[in-house]
Amino acid sequence: MSAPVFEITRGTSPIILGFPHTGTEVPPEIADRLNDNGRILADTDWHIHHLYDGLLDNVTVVRATFHRYVIDANRDPQGVSLYPGQNTTGLIPQTDFDGKAIWKDGQGPDEADIVARLRDFHAPYHAALAAEIERVRAIHGVAILYDCHSIRSHIPFLFEGKLPDFNIGTDMGKTCDSAIEQAALTVVETAEGYDGVLNGRFKGGWTTRHYGRPDTGVHAIQMELAQSTHLQAEAPPFAYDAAKADRLRVHLKNILVRIEQIAPGLKR
């Protein structure tokens, strides 16, 4: 029996946590086409669902179980680039974040693969996420999608220098009420020993931009964390550092609690 495409934990909080990139499941017929570099699955958002586990009572969680090399659940299904003119990876990545090939010669994804994987992976995940957003909005009159991500702090192919620890994305304020953005930013700016940025290199992926419609009562915000904040090393085996993570979790909890407290005042 094949693995489920997504996992859901239903709660009654106005906040929904989305995890499009923590999955590591790759069907055998797809894994067979990956080269040795691709099989490392280096671009996973390692351990992020564990990092957020238990931080907020009654929160809803929607997590993709498939790896982004199968298809990227945080990319436009039409293949439109999130960052025109900048290096990035597509709907089904041809390379890793370092620009290195991940598929065996001649076995990269084609148009038929895109159609099939949109149908079998991308669409079911987003149908589940959309349904949970509607369920939560029906309860509260408002729903807040907090999309959870991480990435290595040094990736010259994608950005110069070191990425800040906290990277808040709201598509320049379009995807959520300014009070949500400010609540997250306030915690980040006062988190001792960390740095952060609002709408820097990462302004929110397709998920945040697609669902974030404040005028409808649906708000979305993305948090991209530098993996140096919670991994022992940003290299295989990408091991979780419990001491680092515990320090970070204090601030992540603070962000979620503050956003949850704002929710009642956002009803249309």
Q: Helical percent range?
A: 25-40%
Average pLDDT rating: 94
- Side by side, the strands of the main sheet go 1-3-2-4-7-5-6
* Biggest sheet details: 7 strands, mixed
- Strand tally is 7
Number of helices: 6
- Roughly what fraction of the amino acids lie in strands? 5-15%
Provide the succession of SSEs.
EEHHEHEEHEHEH
Instruction: Tell me the distance between the termini.
Output: 44 Å
Low-confidence sequence ranges: none
* Radius of gyration over C-alpha positions, nearest whole angstrom: 18 Å
What general form does the structure show? Answer: globular
Find the structural class using helix and strand composition: alpha/beta
Short key terms for the protein model shown above:
268 residues, alpha/beta, seven-stranded mixed sheet, globular, HutG_amidohyd, N-formylglutamate deformylase activity
Explain what the structure shows.
By secondary structure, the chain is an alpha/beta fold. The protein is built from six helices and seven strands, in the order ββααβαββαβαβα. The protein has a seven-stranded mixed β-sheet, sandwiched between helices. α4 (178-190) links the parallel β5 (166-169) and β6 (196-198). The longest helix is centred in the middle third of the chain and has 30 residues, at 111-140. The N and C termini lie far apart (44 Å).
